[in-house]
UniProtKB/TrEMBL annotation:
Active site per database record: 93 (nucleophile)
GO cellular component entries: cytoplasm
Name listed for the protein in its UniProt record: tRNA-guanine(15) transglycosylase
Keyword Disulfide bond: no
Cofactor note: Binds 1 zinc ion per subunit.
GO molecular function: pentosyltransferase activity; zinc ion binding
Organism this protein belongs to: Halovivax asiaticus JCM 14624
Catalytically driven reaction(s): guanosine(15) in tRNA + 7-cyano-7-carbaguanine = 7-cyano-7-carbaguanosine(15) in tRNA + guanine
Length: 490
């Protein structure tokens, strides 16, 4: 780990990175999406994934090749790259999914790792135990122990320049996820999938996904490349990227297409319900909704799969652009409006603002305050922490606008919701250059009041005055008693 994954630009805990995959001779820019290829179903040919969609990596299941009379020998003889005709990096899964679905598989970790090596996989996976959400602590702990033994075994096997992934399990027990992350990082393996979140995604439990990922990341540390295994809907890529997930895989593009389901970044629509297509990919522009519906079944499935991939890759590009620009949390905020469960996911993310704050760059593009949730962003938390350390004069007037009532104050600082007090010297520095609405909501006023309280409490020797614009009584009551108050509205 470490030398193969290089972090470049960060925003919140999200980042652009470069993962070097030596066996494939390629470097993959993350965040990236690995389309899932099932050799038995050729929805979209791997060559087309690379040429038309810009896929730098794909994922397929070594266990399917292992168990297939048609493909087993061909995969060994030709190698996956030639057999699939794909020039990028090929990651293989091991059959853990089949283990979770059917309760047993007939290979060991040594066998399946050797098989993945023999067929030319670039990133292999040991057979871990995907532990379902909500199981007892005893079960989660026992299964985690088995997974960890297999990861240690995998780390002890010479796999040449093939990278090997170390899945992080632990179910919905945050402390186990964190411990599993720390253990996985210690194995020295290369890529870190966060496993068994699919049942949570299927039930729209995005807040629980966020908590599981945040816990795993605490254990893994920022240097580890993280794969959110099975999260293939573009609606949640931005949220997951903001937590520091680097790799996504999508089987959804093909599975959804089979049922005439049309992916958008705001959720899934059924083709029958669409008169107008909210997308400008070549498929949507060429066919239109009616044209797509009129296609024969097999062509419609391929066309929908292609649209689904276009919209997924476009979202990955949008996320990268947002990270470069420093607006990833604004993008997450937008995506959170697509479904109440997504809003729960975003709020869960902001509940980890302290954790995000450690990775978040101290300066980036202008912060746009666009929602009540903005008041809980890491930048606001950081500003409040900084208030404790600022030096203040003997008498300081804080104001949302009105001038001090007398000349007894040595200095005047603006109060800007949601940040609270803004010293003049810092007003041109990030995040205090933020664009804020002129009509702050209650969450912003509460955050501003918390900032005022932090400053007053940290400087008991100073006498403070505050001129606010009609703050509600409950917020006023939360302020320290020693503060002299002036209501600028009355
Ligand atoms: Zn489209």
């Amino acid at each position: 780990m470490g030398e193969r994954f290089e972090l470049q630009t960060a925003d919140a805990a999200g980042r652009i990175g470069e993962l070097t995959v030596p066996r494939a001779g390629v470097t993959v820019e993350t965040p990236t999406l690995l389309p899932v290829i099932n050799p038995h179903l050729d929805t979209i040919a791997p060559r087309r994934l690379a040429d038309e969609f810009g896929a730098e990596a794909l994922i397929t299941n070594a266990y399917i090749f292992h168990g297939s009379e048609d493909y087993r020998e061909r995969a060994i003889d030709e190698g996956l790259h030639d057999l699939l005709d794909f020039p990028g990096a090929i990651m293989t899964d091991s059959g853990s999914f089949q283990l979770a679905e059917y309760g047993k598989i007939d290979v060991t970790t040594e066998e399946i790792l050797q098989f993945q090596f023999d067929i030319g996989s670039d990133i292999a996976t040991p057979v871990d135990i995907p532990t379902e959400p909500g199981v007892s602590r005893e079960t989660a702990e026992a299964e985690l122990e088995t997974t960890q033994e297999r990861l240690e075994l995998a780390a002890s096997i010479d796999t040449g320049d093939m990278l090997v992934s170390a899945p992080v399990q632990g179910s919905t027990h945050s402390d186990l996820r964190e411990r599993a992350g720390a253990h996985a990082a210690e194995t020295g393996l290369d890529v870190f999938p966060i496993g068994a979140v699919v049942p949570l995604l299927n039930e729209y439990r995005y807040a629980d996904v966020v908590d599981a990922v945040a816990a795993a990341k605490r254990g893994l540390g920022p240097a580890a490349p993280v794969h959110l295994f099975g999260a293939g809907h573009p609606m949640m890529f931005a949220l997951a990227a903001a937590l520091g997930c680097d790799l996504f895989d999508s089987a959804a593009y093909a599975i959804y297409a089979r049922d005439d389901r049309y992916l958008t970044v705001r959720g899934t629509r059924h083709l029958d319900d669409l008169d107008h297509l909210p997308c400008s990919c070549p498929i949507c522009v060429d066919h239109g909704a009616a044209g797509l519906r009129d296609l024969p079944d097999d062509r419609r499935e391929t066309a929908l799969a292609a649209h689904n991939l276009h919209v997924s890759f476009a979202e990955i590009r949008r996320i990268k652009a947002a990270i470069r620009e420093g607006s990833l949390l604004e993008l997450v905020d937008e995506r959170a409006r697509s479904h109440p469960a997504m809003l729960d996911g975003y709020r869960a993310l902001l509940a980890h603002a302290d954790q995000l704050e450690r990775e978040d760059p101290s300066s980036k593009g202008t912060f746009f305050v666009t929602s009540a949730e903005s008041a809980r962003r890491p930048e606001v938390v950081r500003h409040h922490d900084r208030l404790d350390r600022l030096s203040v004069p003997d008498a300081l007037f804080l104001t949302e606008g009105p001038d001090p009532p007398s000349d007894e104050y040595d200095d005047v600082w603006r109060v800007v919701p949601p940040f609270g007090p803004v010293p003049s010297a810092l007003s041109r520095t990030y995040p205090l250059t933020a664009e804020v609405p002129t009509r702050p909501d209650r969450a912003a006023l509460e955050a501003a009041a918390r900032g005022v309280s932090r400053l007053v409490d940290a400087h008991p020797e100073t006498s403070f005055g505050l001129a606010h614009r009609g703050w509600p009584p409950a917020i006023i009551e939360s302020l320290p008693d020693e503060l002299a108050l002036f209501d600028g509205e009355s």
